[in-house]
Design goal:
Blueprint: H1 2-13, H2 15-28, E1 51-54, H3 58-74, E2 80-84, H4 87-97, E3 102-105, H5 111-121, E4 125-129, H6 135-143, E5 148-153, H7 157-164, H8 167-175, E6 179-182, H9 185-193, E7 201-203, H10 215-229, E8 234-240, H11 245-258, E9 263-268, H12 274-283, E10 288-290, E11 303-305, H13 312-316, E12 321-324, H14 337-340, E13 346-348, H15 356-364, E14 368-370, H16 374-386, H17 388-404, H18 408-420
Parallel strand pairs: 1-2, 1-4, 2-3, 4-5, 5-6, 6-7, 8-9, 8-12, 9-11, 10-11, 12-13, 13-14
Helix pairs in contact: 3-4, 5-6, 6-8, 11-16, 16-17
């Protein structure tokens, strides 16, 4: 308890610096200037007595889509409130669910701000996606006897080491939770090591496996493939980061020497980097277009920048090979399962600690190729484009891993129903 009080005091003290950071981020993304009051719990009046789900940003929100859809079907009488921490996450909520859910920003983890938000929502249950645990948020829910569950929980060895440095803060927080539904046993063991009592742990697999390509996405992808690259070999570099785009463009420049009609779809992870990446592509003298400009793709186009939100799943359907970003730089990699749903051969860099268990499964099935630099990447792309049968086999193996591990969603729903008890009948 004293550690949480110290933590809260420090949060109050650093608020001026948080404001400065918020102001700095708003220089690149103006949306950070808006709805600031929500970050202190002064949000819009919301319908109470439903399900509260928190997802940090875009990735967690996309991962939550099957779960939210299932909850809407199972509990149609309960309002669902989704909180995020970033404007891109907010945009993804509106794009994925429209007006069928309520949304506001999660406030900073100040006791007073969290009390205001929880009083506003008064949920029957709180569900946190993947990793986003805040001590005061969990404590305020626990004080009100509101069950709180970590869904699709993951905890890398790297993150666990960091949490271990503040175990006196983390351990009480974990044991104020009702349940942690960990993706894999390794994740669960790390939570146990941090102090979680074993009876509060369930290992359920990852709901990220419970994805399917919709008919609409597949049809749109086929239309764009015909318009953009009917006779071109296409690779996509998805969710890329600063320092990584340079490597990818260098690989593409090498590839064009042997596969001159190759097309790269480059999709930066963060919208505030769209303009920066466009300048980088231009400086490297590629002939390119930006997806957001809705221009006709010419025959000599070499790079298309995917600078729109919520279309990545469709863009995967245009490609023949997928590279998953955040892995050539030490960001831990992003989700390789979305392109696997299309049966694409997968390439990643060596830094995959965010999805270590999933990547190990794919590697064990010979469905994931690891590269360390632009030369290895270019070579692998050239091999896949030349040997289409090999590429197809790799892609089918990735799809098989995805399909074999589906079923986590049903386990999560059973646990949520257990926590809710008869509350949803009230």
């Amino acid at each position: 308890m004293p550690t949480r009080y110290l933590y809260s005091s420090l949060l109050y003290i650093v608020q001026p610096f948080i404001w400065l950071k918020l102001g700095y981020r708003s220089l690149k993304a103006k949306s950070y200037r808006h709805r600031v009051s929500e970050r202190y719990g002064f949000g819009p009046t919301l319908k109470q007595g439903g399900i509260w789900l928190h997802s940090v940003s875009v990735g967690e929100t996309i991962a939550s889509i099957p779960l939210v859809k299932a909850l809407q079907a199972a509990y149609p009488q309960l309002p669902i409130t989704i909180t995020t921490m970033t404007p891109t996450g907010s945009e993804q909520v509106h794009k994925s669910f429209g007006d069928s859910v309520q949304h506001c920003y999660l406030p900073y983890d100040l006791p007073c701000a969290m009390r205001r938000l929880i009083n506003n929502i008064n949920p029957k249950i709180a569900i946190v996606m993947e990793t986003e645990l805040w001590p005061n948020m969990i404590h305020q829910l626990n004080r009100r006897n509101i069950p709180v569950m970590l869904a699709n929980g993951r905890l890398s060895a790297r993150s666990a080491k960091g949490y271990g440095k503040v175990k006196s803060l983390v351990s009480p927080m974990l044991n104020e939770m009702s349940l942690i539904a960990a993706q894999y046993q390794a994740d669960g063991d790390r939570y146990i090591k941090l102090g979680l009592t074993r009876e509060k742990l369930q290992v359920c697999g990852s709901v990220k496996f419970d994805i399917n390509v919709s008919d609409t996405q597949r049809q749109h992808a086929n239309e764009l493939k015909h318009q953009w690259a009917a006779d071109k070999p296409v690779w996509i570099a998805a969710s890329t980061h600063a320092g990584e785009d340079e490597i990818l463009l260098a690989a593409h420049k090498q590839l064009l020497q042997t596969v001159p009609n190759a097309l790269l779809i480059l999709v930066p992870r963060h919208p505030e980097r769209f303009d920066e990446v466009a300048k980088l592509v231009a400086n490297n003298q590629f002939r390119f277009l930006r997806k957001s400009h809705n221009e006709a793709v010419t025959a000599d186009c070499q790079v298309i920048i995917g600078d729109t939100m919520g279309e990545l799943m469709t863009l995967f359907g245009i490609a023949d090979v997928a590279f998953i970003g955040g892995s050539l730089v030490e960001r831990g990699g992003h989700n390789p399962l979305e392109p696997a749903a299309y049966g694409l051969p997968l390439i990643m860099g060596p830094h995959t600690f965010n999805f270590s268990s999933i990547c190990t499964m794919l590697e064990d099935a010979s469905a994931l190729t690891t590269v360390s630099d632009e030369h290895a990447l270019e070579e692998q792309l050239r091999i896949f484009f030349k040997d289409k049968e090999k590429a197809s086999i790799k892609g089918k193996k990735a799809l098989a891993v995805l399909q074999l591990n589906q079923g986590s969603l049903a386990k999560h729903l059973a646990l949520i129903d257990q926590l809710l008890g008869n509350r949803h009948d009230n």
